[in-house]
Amino acid sequence: MADTGDAPSLKKQKIVASEGCLLGYGNPLLDISVQGTTAFLEKYGLKADNAILAEDKHKEMYDDMAEEFKDNVEFVPGGATLNSIRIVQWLTGVPQATSFFGCINEGDKFGKILISKALEEKVNFKHQNTTKEPTGTCAVIVTGANRSLCANLAAANCFTEDHLDVEENWKLVEKAQYYYIAGFPLTVCPAAILRIAKHSGEKGKTFTTNLSAPFLCQFFKDPMMQVMPYVDILFGNETEADTFAKEHNFETEDRKEIAKKIAALPKDNKTKPRMVIITQGADPIIVAKDGEVTEYPVIPIKSEDIVDTNGAGDAFVGGYLAQLVKGESVAKCVKCGNYAANVVIQQSGCTFPGKPEFE
Description:
It is built from 13 helices and 14 strands. It is an alpha/beta fold.
């Protein structure tokens, strides 16, 4: 079933998410979250409110923190795409409505925890295995109101296109009607992204992706633009959209115009116009399609109720997709995206309560 926008007939049919309807590929990471100390941050040269990629000096830190803070350590499946997939799975409530590809080391303890946690949440986690690197991890060290993030992609960087050649995996690609791949795997295996995107286009399915980070718009522009003709729905936030506009010489800082220009970029399936969705924090969400822009307000929230904004964008995408796979209107998709983001920013990390309360 392709995206049919606001078709009233779909609402009458009350479509529900089906097993395997959404497939994601991304960089799976196990978030290791602790209430840490200033001394621990200093031990590894970390700052209290910062986000960095791990260097060699951080490699031993993940085991160290899991041991030193074992009484309060929390393990949460992470990585941008997997976060969104987990939100979709939570909201649909249909076992294995979502499938996910990514590379881990299934033999190490963090890989085993990651598999276990994903399966607990009913995600069909079809990982590729490597022994070359440890499972990707992200340290989340909370000190007071600050949190220091240090990500070690490790095994996630080892994903290869031949994972798609495995018969049972390609069957999941064929079964899915919707796809979501955040921008980060452009640094790992753009060939796999392109192959899935082309399949989606050829079969009239719906391929969605995300700008994900300003550096991707700058330094991975070529692989991003190779995929762009097959993108049906593109997500991004305000800084990513601004950077994309500068890199492509749009000569405007008006985000509504930026969204329209991205939507109008060349598309392989011209019968299915591209939709561009730009989130802007507390400001209205911009949705551009067919040369028109609609704005949707976010859910107001008091600053004292915000626990952690990390993962809010992933949650919005997950909420949107959870309604998209049921054929709902753009307005309802955005509403659910706002709901999911609002829930997640009141939690530590990309976590959520046992049962959703969206309608």
